[in-house]
Amino acid sequence: MHTSRPLITIENPEWINRIALLFKKMDRSYAEASEAGEFSCTGCQENCCLSLFYHHTLLELLYLREGLNSLSEETLNTVTFRAQEAVPRLHRRAEDETLEKIPCPLMEEGQCLLYTHRPMVCRLHGVAHFLERPDGSVLKGPGCSRYEETAADNRPLNRTPLYKEMAHLEKTLRQETGFTDRLKLTIAEMILL
Ligand code: SF4
């Protein structure tokens, strides 16, 4: 039986819309960059849903929980069981005690059960990108190996405006809720919280 307790309570329902709008912008930016490079993840063996990723914002946790609350009791119990199994294996993976690929608990036959509510990394991973830092330096990312090998036209995605908006919303949400904890969570840990 899934028995999560709310980390915090969000009084203002407007937050879900704000997060949804930002994620829609991310999806549009990703679509533009992947179309420019004629790039797709379809059929890729290096599926990022088998990789170890951490998520750091209350926004992403809140939105994923919104998605979890929409699942049927049966499906929620299934992903909860998978998450309980995955957490110790992910810890060993993080300590390089194993190199095994650990599927995300939300992955079902290669598809994401909460695609609409998936976090930022899941939305932006894969294409080449850059980030303009406040000090004027630029952080560049080549994209995943498949992108590097197959992308027809390397038009990197500018993560700067997306990160800026994410940081602003996160700061506002934390001020509004008084939540101050640092977050570094895998999807499995987010499910079990
Ligand atoms: S949340 Fe969805 S897209 Fe992200 S790793 Fe899990 S299954 Fe993949």
Please describe what this structure looks like.
The protein has 193 residues and is mainly α. It has one domain. The protein contains 7 helices and 5 strands. The strands form 2 sheets. It has a 3-stranded mixed sheet. A two-stranded antiparallel sheet has the order 1-2. The protein is globular. The N terminus is likely disordered. The structure holds iron/sulfur cluster. The site of iron/sulfur cluster has 8 residues, from loops. The site of iron/sulfur cluster (SF4) has 8 residues, from loops.
Keywords, please?
193 residues, mainly alpha, two-stranded antiparallel sheet, binds iron/sulfur cluster
Short characterization:
The protein is mainly alpha-helical and 193 residues long.
The hetero compounds bound to this protein are: iron/sulfur cluster
Distance between the termini: 14 Å
- As a percent range, the share of helical residues equals 40-55%
Structural class: mainly alpha
Overall geometry: globular
User: How many domains?
Assistant: 1
Strand content: 5-15%
Average pLDDT number:
91
- The unreliable regions are 1-5
- Number-wise, the strands total 5
Please outline the major beta sheet.
3 strands, mixed
The tally of helices reads 7
Radius of gyration: 17 Å
